[in-house]
Design goal:
There is one protein chain. The protein has 136 residues and is mostly helical. The protein is built from 6 helices and no strands.
């Protein structure tokens, strides 16, 4: 009787350890763990022609200062497309990943943004990590 309890405890512990190991193996990799300095370089190469990171300085596109956490289409002083104003989403890191990983016209049909998307996942992680630093 006493021995069967020990066996049961051992089996439960083994199952718990196996579950933890399996869970770790199946867990998605850390998302958005990009390199901020590399993201600054990606920004310069991919975004700086149309966007500024300075607060209040819009170019062809709106300033990306404090873009993470901002509701889409709401930066005062910028004339957004109807499509983006109607999007009703917030620029979370996940939303930025999804939006920037594909052509803008696919991500937001009707947008005026002309961008084909960033194909390299590492560059995307780096860029979003950089954008997350742009806050007051």
């Amino acid at each position: 009787m006493h021995g069967s309890r020990n066996v049961t405890r051992l089996l439960l512990r083994g199952a718990a350890v196996a579950g933890l190991c399996l869970g770790g193996a199946l867990a998605p990799p850390l998302a958005h763990a990009g390199d901020v300095a590399a993201g600054s370089d990606v920004f310069k190469a991919e975004c700086a022609e149309c966007h500024s990171v300075r607060e209040g300085r819009n170019k062809k596109g709106p300033s990306l200062f404090a873009v993470v956490g901002r509701a889409a289409g709401t930066l005062p002083g910028y004339d957004y497309s109807d499509a983006l104003r109607a999007a009703r989403w917030t620029w979370t890191p996940e939303k930025l990943h999804g939006y920037l990983s594909q052509p803008a016209r696919k991500a937001n049909p009707g947008t005026r943004m002309k961008y084909d998307g960033l194909a390299a996942p590492r560059d995307l992680d780096d860029l979003v990590a950089y954008l997350r630093t742009l806050h007051p």
